[in-house]
Amino acid sequence: MLEARGTPPGSTPPAVIAAADDYESLVDLLLRSAAGEVRVARLADAVATTSRQLRVLREEHVRLKHLQSRARENS
What we know:
- This protein is mostly helical.
- It has one domain.
- It contains 2 helices and no strands.
- The radius of gyration is 30 Å and the shape is rod-shaped.
- It starts with a helix and ends with a helix.
């Protein structure tokens, strides 16, 4: 990893190497979780859309039942 960073071995203190390793691990973790975050956001949008559709269907069902009841009363 030191060569990939352009850091010659022996001239860099171990604390700096450890900090760089920890930073790279953290960046890796953040990048992997970003993809999951996008999936969760898409899923939340899909759930919201489905919830709206379900609410509209229920309202329509109640409206139709009401109309059906009124039609029976008038006949």
